[in-house]
Amino acid sequence: MQSSASPGRAGLLLGAAAYALWGVLPLYIHLLQQVPALQVLAHRVLWSVLLLALVIVALRRARPILQAARGRTLLLLVASASLIAINWLVYIWAVQHHHVLEASLGYFINPLVNVALGMAVLGERLRRLQGVAIAVAAAGVAILAVSGGGALWISLALALSFGLYGLVRKVAAIDALGGLTVETLLLAPIALALLVQAGHAGEGAFGQSTRLDLLLMLAGPVTTAPLLMFAAAARRLPLATLGLLQYIAPSFQFAQAVLFFDEPVGLVHVVTFALIWTGCALYALDSLRAARMSRALPK
Questions:
Q1: Residues 177-184, mean pLDDT to the nearest whole number
Q2: Contact 277, 137 (CB under 8 A)
Q3: pLDDT score, position 241
Q4: Helix-helix angle 210-217:37-59, to 10 degrees
Q5: pLDDT tens for each residue of 201-243
Q6: How far apart are CA 279 and CA 130, in angstroms?
Q7: Model confidence over 229-286: pLDDT tens digits?
Q8: Taking residues 73-97, what's their average pLDDT?
Q9: What pLDDT, on a 0 to 100 scale, did the predictor assign at position 166?
Q10: Are the C-beta atoms of residues 132 and 183 closer than 8 Å to each other?
Q11: 8 A C-beta contact, residue 56 and residue 181
């Protein structure tokens, strides 16, 4: 009994830790306020490459990753690398320009975007409660759009880019570690070129101070550690449990926007988030119910 429970507890801890780290990411990015978003993104890519290289060498995974990243899979990873770069850049820019509230909204609606993309692209069947959840959340987004309150484009860009990223990675025949490694390797030449250009122009952030250099170098573990934790948790937990844990990150972001960054929350935000949270609650309820029904089916 103890041995069967331990993987579940470990998975829960790893999953919660991964989403918590993603949730406090604005605090880290806020420390890099004086660094242009493109340079933050470039450092995030390059230091991640270095860290991932160490992990892959330690795990002896280089050959399987190279064998997997060919043909159609490589083309899909080019697309996913572009999407995750857009997602990271928009997120960094949003935090630096005091739009953490809109960023959290994007990740609240992301699970519902995933359901809609699965139905539209993969032909997955939409359960009734999922349809209601999407409709309620869409009403919240529509209210924010009509009112003109907040930078809605940030929320939609984050939700759609990450949703499409997840869709591409779902059909790419490579695991999380291998996929992230190839994606960062594909982005590395562009990242390096950006930093070299910034350095020649006298605008490079790296080398200005020890504190700033250490913060930029920290971008590697900040990027890779949560993903590796998540990948380990995904092997140990049911999808329904992961589906509930994913709301930790945007909840933390919302709290930081209000408590730490003093971003204004008007009536339209209250109404919008109430509808979004209702949609998320319905989605979570549907996931739990589907998981119970699945366990009840005869093996």
A1: 91
A2: no
A3: 73
A4: 60
A5: 889 999 889 999 999 999 999 988 998 888 788 777 776 677 7
A6: 9
A7: 887 887 777 766 777 788 889 989 999 998 899 888 888 888 888 998 898 888 888 8
A8: 95
A9: 84
A10: no
A11: yes
Structure tokens at 31: 């420390």
Nearest to 49 by CA among 221, 226, 196, 231: 221
Instruction: Check if the beta carbon of residue 261 is closer than 8 Å to that of residue 30.
Output: yes
- Cα 11-249-117 angle, rounded to 5 deg: 90
pLDDT-derived band of residue 5, with 50, 70 and 90 as boundaries? very low
Please enumerate in sequence order all residues whose Cβ is within 8 A of that of 174, keeping only pairs 6 or more positions apart, or say none: 65, 68, 69, 73, 77, 182
What gap in Å lies between CA 218 and CA 20, rounded to an integer? 17
pLDDT, tens digit, for every residue of 13-46?
988 999 999 999 999 999 999 999 999 999 999 9
Spatial distance between the Cα atoms of 73 and 243, rounded to a whole number of angstroms: 26
d(CA 184, CA 49): 6
Q: Which residue has the tokens 């609240």?
A: 108
Distance CA 99, CA 195 (A): 25
User: Residue 273: which of 24, 103, 18, 130 has the closest Cα?
Assistant: 103
Quick one: CA torsion of 162, 206, 219, 101, rounded to 10 degrees? -50
